[in-house]
Amino acid sequence: MSAKKTQTKSQKSSKERPLTQPRREAKTNTASYSISRLSSVLFAILLLLAVVAMAALFYLQSIQPPVQRPTVLEDEKYYFTDSRYAGIRSKFVTRDTKREKVSIEYPITSNSKINKLIARVIDRADGDFRHTATNAPTFDRPMTETISYQVTHNNSTALSIIVNIKQDMHGAHPVSLTHFWTFDKKSGEVIGLDNLTEKSEEAIKAIVTAARHDVAQTIKQRQQPEANLDEMITKKALSNFTITDDGNTLAWPIGQASLLPSAYGEMTIKVPIAAVAKYLQNPTARKLANIPKPPEPKPAPAAPTAANSGGKVIALTFDDGPGPYTAQLLDILDQHGAKATFFLIGSKVSAQADVLRRMHAHGHQLGNHSWSHPELPKLPIDQIAGEIDRTNEAIRQATGVKPSILRPPYGAVNGIVLEQIRARGMSSILWSVDTRDWADRNSDIVCSRAVAGARPGAIILMHDIHQTSVNAVPCILSSLKQQGYSFVTVQGLLGNMAPGAGYP
Ligand code: NI
Q1: How far away, in angstroms, is 341 Cα from ligand 1 center?
Q2: Interval between CA 391 and ligand 1 midpoint (Å)
Q3: Catalytic pick from 126, 319, 320, 464?
Q4: What are 339-392's pLDDT values in tens digits?
């Protein structure tokens, strides 16, 4: 502004002077002429400064980050903290007024693309909420909004994040939404089911079918009416997924009314990776999660049977686990190249799912030993069924494999129990040698009983929940090996049994 004024003034004076001033007044003129020249230099400098200042202002505006939230809210406060997840910080935003009570936690990862995508989803939901809260008549209590996140997988290449949005806008139902993604940490791109399976139709179909099966199980357990899952649980609906359970499970934490009708509530669909591992044998999937190698077709000599070992085979069986010494027992069996059978307590399975996967991967057999170890014949039929089904399901969840054999707790079995076992295509397995290892917690005694009782085709009963029993195993294995025995699973010993068959 001041530069312009100066300009008009000095232009005037420099124009007028040569015309109005006669030549003989040159002396006085020289002084006034140099003043006029000084002012035009001054003007030029000021003009230059103004241009530089405007350019600087323009530049500063252009380098400011894009404003994500256009409105600055008076009551909004925010702060940053480290989250409980490695390499991820949280940005908390809170607003607390008569109208609204808001708490939002944004994840801040090292990849800005990931951060932006998540912030956009959160801001959209928050924008809707704010619109409602601002335009509604005031209530005696504020509307509430809580947005938080969870990280279920965070390895060197991938990150699974779930955002939970809970809003109570005094409507008929509080809003409960989830958004979830698995990101490539480097590129910031969302990894879809297509990337995981390299677009193999067969692989996607297998995963979608496994997901439907899991939803059906949950619906059955909750005693909700059957739903048309073929329409609701589709390839498209499952495209975004999360990884949980230390990289061993694919999961879809679906919010209320997102895939299933509202009445079904929230649910996390889970597919154990072991169950679909053969469809995930590709580099992308392998970088993301724990993909077990596909089981190699077993050449006959690898698994000794009654036929190829001159009949000198024995099945060692371990009940009541998995327990604190089971992993140690697996090491011992590996060292001796021995296979065994584990009759598992269903309620203990999920805590040691990794141990079960190892059992399965190393060629041992997994059997059902009920959910809570009751005397089955004393229970009503529906409870017998529950004890068997819950355990089968827990083992299937952990390993992808459904057991075909059951050992009734205390060896207690009757016609009703056998009928339940038969109805599930399973058989009942007792034992021929009881080491009574639970009574004598002495490894030497346990070893000598097992060795003394050994006959070709014997099934030896032990419990891997006792350290003394596990400690007896090296002695049993080396003594019987010297006698020419090899160690097989129950299935290796008896082959495939008819449903409802019992041993002995
Ligand atoms: Ni038992």
Answers
A1: 13
A2: 14
A3: 319
A4: 999 999 999 999 999 999 999 999 999 999 999 999 999 999 999 999 999 999
pTM: 0.50
- Residue 123 annotated as catalytic: no
Answer yes or no: are the C-beta atoms of 213 and 272 closer than 8 Å: no
For residue 76, the cross-strand partners are 95
Residue with tokens 């056998």: 418
C-alpha of residue 371 to centroid of ligand 1, in Å? 11
The C-alpha atoms of residue 436 and residue 416 are separated, in whole angstroms, by 27
Structure tokens at 382: 């529906």
Give all domains of the chain, ordered by start, each with its CATH number. 76-191 (3.30.565.40), 194-288 (3.90.640), 313-503 (3.20.20.370)
The Å distance, Cα 304 to ligand 1 centre, comes to 27
Residue partners of 132: CB distance under 8 A and separation at least 6: 143, 169
Ligand 1: centre distance to CA 331 (Å):
22
| Catalytic option among 153, 179, 364, 463 | 463
**The pLDDT value given to residue 30:** 59
**406-419 mean pLDDT:** 93
Q: How far is the CA of 411 from the centre of ligand 1 (A)?
A: 8
Q: Can you tell me the distance from the alpha carbon of 344 to that of 428, in angstroms, rounded to the nearest whole number?
A: 14
The model's pLDDT over 434-489, given as tens digits with 9 standing for 90+, comes to: 999 998 999 999 999 999 999 999 999 999 999 999 999 999 999 999 999 999 99
| 336 is a catalytic site residue | no
Residue 164 structure tokens: 């939970």
